From TrEMBL:
<feature type="compositionally biased region" description="Low complexity">
    <location>
        <begin position="561"/>
        <end position="573"/>
    </location>
</feature>
<dbReference type="GO" id="GO:0016614">
    <property type="term" value="F:oxidoreductase activity, acting on CH-OH group of donors"/>
</dbReference>
<dbReference type="Pfam" id="PF00732">
    <property type="entry name" value="GMC_oxred_N"/>
</dbReference>
<feature type="binding site">
    <location>
        <position position="213"/>
    </location>
    <ligand>
        <name>FAD</name>
    </ligand>
</feature>
<feature type="region of interest" description="Disordered">
    <location>
        <begin position="561"/>
        <end position="603"/>
    </location>
</feature>
<feature type="binding site">
    <location>
        <position position="81"/>
    </location>
    <ligand>
        <name>FAD</name>
    </ligand>
</feature>
<dbReference type="InterPro" id="IPR012132">
    <property type="entry name" value="GMC_OxRdtase"/>
</dbReference>
<feature type="domain" description="Glucose-methanol-choline oxidoreductase N-terminal">
    <location>
        <begin position="75"/>
        <end position="98"/>
    </location>
</feature>
<keyword id="KW-0274">FAD</keyword>
<dbReference type="GO" id="GO:0050660">
    <property type="term" value="F:flavin adenine dinucleotide binding"/>
</dbReference>
<dbReference type="InterPro" id="IPR007867">
    <property type="entry name" value="GMC_OxRtase_C"/>
</dbReference>
<dbReference type="InterPro" id="IPR036188">
    <property type="entry name" value="FAD/NAD-bd_sf"/>
</dbReference>
<comment type="similarity">
    <text>Belongs to the GMC oxidoreductase family.</text>
</comment>
<dbReference type="Pfam" id="PF05199">
    <property type="entry name" value="GMC_oxred_C"/>
</dbReference>
<protein>
    <submittedName>
        <fullName>Glucose dehydrogenase [FAD, quinone]</fullName>
    </submittedName>
</protein>
<dbReference type="InterPro" id="IPR000172">
    <property type="entry name" value="GMC_OxRdtase_N"/>
</dbReference>
<feature type="compositionally biased region" description="Polar residues">
    <location>
        <begin position="576"/>
        <end position="603"/>
    </location>
</feature>
């Protein structure tokens, strides 16, 4: 398998309890500073830790970004995007998963079906409701020590009639303090929680860092039997006797499928790639965009001011007990509400706007830092934020939480190192519902911040009078101004999903249609974006996907013993003396002869599981069986 990210790390952990797993990851170890929640985001846009994707120039959104291109970060290294993300822990709305169940026709993906998988990996903070939360699992989730002006934000929401509730349990609309995957103030990405504790103890798991996978290897048209990857300047192959699993994230999983010949026929032919399965890979791309609102000035020192608060004692506080301002990523509270558009569609109980409170004031280099992190034009950012430097203030991001716009990922070339073409097509939905719900979200936020007792009266919150560069010609705060604002100052919230959707590219067991032995297990399989942030759902997909793999092979084993079919290979532990613990075979082409054609079916993933044959992956006409769970050799 490849991709040690939010989903992949979980898969590697679960499968290696029982089977041998080779986990290939393009990046390296997390930087120790990434474990400090307050520092994680500083690793965005560095090639060692970030794939640094860029979208094509957007016509209707992100207009203040350099070249109108949205800057899409994606973590590179053990733990994947979970090592550089903003750590908000939210699963999604109950209705999101019920919708998945409906779309896929498989109730196991509805809320009731996925809930046990969320619970099974969680070690939720003590006051979590046991009906909805897991305790004692691998991933600690809790409220950080420092929550800044989060309580005021939640109270303001309550004043407008929204409940203060657990947004990880079933809810309609509500506000809450943000929970993080942290333990004692230390970031718990999926590397820290699922790989670090086992990587040196579990013989069945072999991790290869700096292994850039180029393509899936197929034999006889559609049987996935291995991966080709580059490591330290050498191209190698790894072979699987059971399955190949792709967990490279929404952009790279789609890219790798297409490079391997799984994708839209016309596009692959255009690139000169032989087509193994004609599937809509890369289509159905969805992402959240957010408009960053602020600065909101306040009269009391309730927000973090870096120049004032990031003192040596803040570091001491974190190092000694994981406490203080460094125990958070700066995001303190969230609110999830329904717009009048959602209500008019009869979906008032399925919210479409999310707020994120950034409880810190504008510091001297804020404009430049924001510009760098989000690919915005530095001059415009500096100009816009200059008036707020050193004044007590905060920001709020408004997310269009249920976008209707759909985009795509395509190949930018045939080489694995060619950059993918990413077009999220923000604000292109017919009827402009995405734009209008965001404008409404902005206007509701202005009311919430300035007209409530908690924020407006007690903190004296007032929105800036500085117009946004590019919208100065419009009447300040008119609807036209906010439309302009939403189009210009929209940045990705980094939640892409959907490029290998269940129901169109993979089945509900996450097996790639029209192939054998190939699954995708990561956020790309989500058919529709959840309302909230996406890491928790990616982890759940990893947990549920692993369970499917384990159950599948357990079932195969039972069938074989029942019907007297050949037993799957029983592999003993790896012999450490063999090539660093990895058994090698001299030449892949000699090892894989032509399998007995009766032993596999070209569309076996589409057929009932009984037609799937282990023998087709393990044995050849000459009776050769792969001598280990996987093996690798060097391509000359
Ligand atoms: C800046 C930022 C902030 C975010 N903030 C939040 C947040 O606060 N809360 C939240 O819930 N979500 C957040 N997200 C989103 C969330 O982190 C992702 O949705 C989630 O981590 C995706 O998980 P995944 O397993 O699909 O992919 P990833 O975690 O991206 O894992 C993919 C892995 O595959 C590896 N890989 C890719 N290609 C190859 C290849 N060719 N060969 C070998 N390995 C490869 C990558 O290096 C990576 O390790 C944020 C994302 C970003 C970028």
């Amino acid at each position: 398998m490849f991709g040690a990210g939010s989903a992949g790390a979980v898969v590697a952990n679960r499968l290696s309890k029982k089977y041998r797993v080779l986990l290939l990851e393009a990046g390296g170890e997390p930087n120790p500073l990434q474990y400090i929640p307050g520092f994680g985001v500083f690793f965005v846009n560095y090639p060692e830790t970030d794939w640094m994707h860029k979208t094509v120039p957007q016509k209707y959104a992100s207009l203040n970004s350099v070249n109108q291109q949205s800057s899409w970060s994606a973590g590179r290294g053990l733990g994947g995007t979970g090592t550089l993300n903003l750590m908000i822990y939210l699963r999604g709305h109950k209705k999101d998963f019920d919708n998945w169940g409906r779309i896929t026709g498989d109730p196991s993906w509805s809320w009731e079906g996925v809930l046990p998988y969320f619970k099974s990996y969680e070690d939720y903070e003590e006051d979590g409701d046991p009906r909805y939360h897991g305790f004692g699992g691998d991933l600690r989730v809790e409220q950080p020590d420092y929550i800044g002006m989060g309580p005021e934000f939640v109270r303001a929401g309550q004043e407008l009639g929204y409940s203060h509730c657990d947004l990880n349990a079933p809810f309609t609309e509500g506000f809450d303090i943000i929970k993080f995957p942290i333990k004692d103030g230390i970031r718990q990405g999926t590397y820290k929680a699922f790989l670090e504790p086992i990587r040196r103890l579990r013989a069945k798991l072999v991790i290869r860092k700096y292994a850039h996978v180029n393509r899936v290897l197929f034999k006889h048209g559609n049987i996935a039997f291995g991966l080709e990857y580059d490591r330290h300047g050498v191209t190698r192959q790894a072979f699987a006797s059971k399955e190949v699993i792709i967990s490279a994230g929404t952009v790279n999983s789609a890219k790798l499928l297409m490079l391997s010949g799984i994708g839209p026929r016309a596009h692959l032919q255009e690139q000169g790639i032989p087509v193994y399965a004609d599937l809509p890979v890369g289509q159905n791309l969805q992402d959240h965009i957010g408009a960053y609102m602020g600065p909101f000035f306040i009269d009391k020192p309730r927000a973090v001011a870096l120049e004032r608060d990031l003192t040596p004692s803040a570091f001491v506080q974190w190092f000694l007990g994981g406490k203080g301002i460094l125990s958070t990523t700066g995001l303190h509270a969230t609110g999830i509400i329904s717009s009048s558009l959602a209500k008019a569609r009869g979906e008032g109980d399925w919210p479409d706007i999310q707020y994120f409170l950034y409880g810190f004031s504008v510091f001297k280099t804020f404009g430049a830092a924001f510009a760098r992190g989000f690919g915005l034009t530095a001059d415009e950012q500096n100009k816009f934020y200059e008036h707020a430097i050193d004044k007590e203030s905060f920001l709020v991001a408004v997310s269009g939480a249920r976008p209707f716009s759909r985009g795509f990922v395509k190949l930018g070339g045939k080489s694995p190192y060619d950059k993918p073409v990413i077009d999220p097509r923000y604000f292109t939905d017919p009827g402009d519902q995405d734009l209008y719900s965001m404008v409404e979200g902005i206007k509701t936020l202005l009311y919430l911040t300035q007209n409530t007792t908690a924020l407006g009266h007690e903190l004296g919150t007032r929105y800036t009078t500085q117009p946004l560069p590019g919208c100065e010609h419009l009447r300040f705060q008119s609807d036209e101004y906010w439309e302009c604002y939403a189009r210009r100052y929209t940045v990705t919230l980094h939640h892409p999903v959907g490029t290998a959707s269940m129901g169109s590219v993979v089945d509900t067991q996450l097996r790639v249609y029209g192939t054998q032995g190939l699954r995708v297990i990561d956020s790309s399989v989500a058919p529709v974006l959840v309302v909230t942030n996406t890491q928790a759902s990616a982890i759940m997909i990893g947990e549920k996907g692993s369970d499917m793999v384990l159950k599948y092979w357990e079932e195969q084993k039972k069938k074989q013993s029942q019907y007297g079919a050949p037993q799957p290979q029983q592999y003993g532990p790896l012999e450490p003396s063999q090539s660093n613990g990895v058994p090698t075979v001299p030449d892949s082409t000699q090892q894989y002869g032509v399998p007995d054609s009766s032993s596999y079916s070209a569309s076996s993933w589409l057929q009932p599981a009984t037609t799937y044959s282990i023998a087709s992956l393990n044995s050849t006409k000459s009776g050769y069986s792969v001598p280990g769970y996987y093996s690798y050799n060097t391509v000359k």
